[in-house]
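Dissemination and training. As part of the outreach component of the grant, students in the summer workshop were shown how a complex can be specified as a set of sequence lines and then modelled as a single object. The example used during the hands-on session is reproduced here so that future cohorts can follow it. Participants entered these lines:
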Amino acid sequence: MTSTIGVAGAVFAAATVLAVAVIVLRRATLVVLERSRLERETRLRPLALALSAGDEDAERETATLARRDSRSLAATLARFAGSFSGGERQQIAALLERRGDIDREIAELRSWRTWRRGRAAYLLGDAGSAEAVVPLLRVLADDSDRDVRSAAARSLGRLGEETAAAPLALALVEKHVPRAVASQALLAIGPAALPGLVDLKDHPEPDVRELVARLLGVLGGPAEAEYLHALVEDPSAPVRAAAARALGRIGDARASAALTARLEDRIPAVRAAAATALGALGDRSAVPPLLRIAREDDFEPARQAARAAASLDADSVRGAGAEDGPHLVEASDLLAAGIEAWERI
Amino acid sequence: MRDVLAAFGLFILGYFALLNAIYLAFTLYAFKALTRRLRQQEYSPEAETFASPFSPAVSVILPAYNEEAVIVASVRSLLRLRYPFLEIVVVADGSTDATVERMREAFDLVEVRRALRDSIATQPVLATYVSRRHPEIVVIEKENGGKADSVNAGINAAGHEFLCVTDADAVLEPDALLHVTRPIIDDPDLVVATGGIVRIINGCRVEDGEVVEVGLPRSRLAVFQVIEYFRAFLVGRVNWSRSRSLLIISGAFGMFRRDVVEAVGGWWNDTVGEDAELVVRIHRYLRGRDEDYLVEFVPDPVCWTEAPESFRSLGSQRRRWQRGLGETIWRHKRMIGQPRYGAVGLLALPYFLVFELLGPIIELIGYLLIPVAVLAGALNPTYLLVFFLLALVLGVFLSVASLALEEFSFRRHRRSREIARMMLYTVLESFGYRQLTSYWRVREMIAIAMGRKATWQALPRRGLGADAAAEASE
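and obtained this result:
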């Protein structure tokens, strides 16, 4: 028994020494690595700047660079490309293509090492080369690692790739990538993502339709409102609420009647969303039904309705008394204090 | 007699072996999880996707009892949080000082009769105010009812779906809210509560309510606590969260879904461990209804709090924790061993009962019986020595490993000298510090057993940013 315990003690003592050694070594290597990275970046920076300005002499010079320097240069250039847009970005992308950097990173997407795939997927988004789109879509669909897929999603957004809209939306709903990452990518694609999203408006999954409604609200304009008119009658309550809010966000004046009808919805969250949206539309004819909701309804719809009524017609809530319920009293006090109660749609 | 002693010796050995096996397994997994995160940071799109229009709107609740010294600075630091949709609800809990006046002067408060929910019963609300300068600041003035009661009043006044509960003396990381909302953005229907890493502010340089330079405290007692926090957060909570049985979200900074908190009845007023108790109650409620849900720990530093530097205040803190733990376990004792409560009933609660609540008692009995056993000839002194050395080495190893975890993940301590000092303390903590904390905990257990009420004082506040000055003048 004693000897077993002794052996265990010796093993852990050795492990402790090892752990201490690892910490010390890591500290030391990080210092060295950081220093050499800084040195390399400082040294290559003028070259990168010259290259991104289209200097052909500089491009010839890069042919003789050591491998490490070459990679570092590509990463710097990609970062530059990521912060530019339009012509300059394309010019750097073309340069990276000529240098073979894009092909090398695309090949890296198949590496068996997760972090290499992730790093390549990330860099390709900044680099701005359209050649990367198809390989990135493949990574988004097939890669076994969620973080690598996320990096690909982000890059497809950065590339503004409209064909990526539907795959991104589905990847989001199927939880292949975090919601925040995919929705940010979709927002980065911008209005170009709309056709792909509209195609999904009748998707059997309510989650997909809800996402479509929300994104149409952020990215869309009056042209997309007609799809939202359908979604505001959807069988799923979260879809109706999202569509109502989206209509308010777009500011579609024709939506007033449909939204007023939603004030009678069975689900409180939909009534609240409809009230908020009506406040944003600016149609004063919605004030009487809003006042009724503000007086009588559950907390959340009543609160939203009072705020909406106050923003549409201040006089309708001013001087509200106890008989009007706490929400109109609050709205009236806020008005009297000169505070605009903001509500996010 | 000898047989009894031998049997007890075996029991201690088994207890010790099991506890350390758990620690080792936890450390290994934490290593895996955190190094993976480190690698992934290089290509993580997190930074860019943070502030999206899809982030949930959050009501930050700040309970304040006589906080005139720090309240304005705390609220200013909340205003600096990077987050798109935020409301700040300050609850003045029957303050007898100038808490509300300070707020009124600083933020131009005006009385607005706010509509309040009645979902959780609280002490009466006396008045509600809104800031003219920052309409997102709401102040609730109520009759005194304690911290839990104040948080509940804050929930009734909160306008948003998610609640972030914090403390007037917590110094927040500017990205704290973005970090703890990330799991929620990912899965708004599933995630009901999240919390992050709390760190010790003593020894750090604070400017404008923000930690600008991480340093190690001068106080030895505080250094021991820094290492303790590494073990608790980087090793402990990472693992509890993974096994879906995280029981504690720190009261200094935690995020909750409002409807769930309302459904379970809000914070419980009659305990000193209200943060853990609420999380256990949420588990009990949702598991009891067979709902799928997540309580997640985010392994990012979110906030900094002051650690006690005197024996007296550290003792108070540990006794309060022990009592809070006891009250939580006692209230939810029915969950222990019940398969329907999943890992919470089968793993986490039994662990906290056997190793955290009763651990100090078993440890103390061990210390008392060892000399008896040696004198009675039931224990071979060589064996004792070897066992003691093993315990020491294991303790050092686990602490050094948690230091290594920090080194491989967040690396907030930039000075190598500080790492060396912490390594030294991993050895020192076995000689006195651990025994001392056990002593306080046993003392509190005895007090509870004798039916004595809680007796300790609050930690004196020095105010945000005062630490550096205090440190320099020492």
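The radius of gyration of chain A is 28 Å. Students were then asked to discuss how this feature might be tested experimentally.
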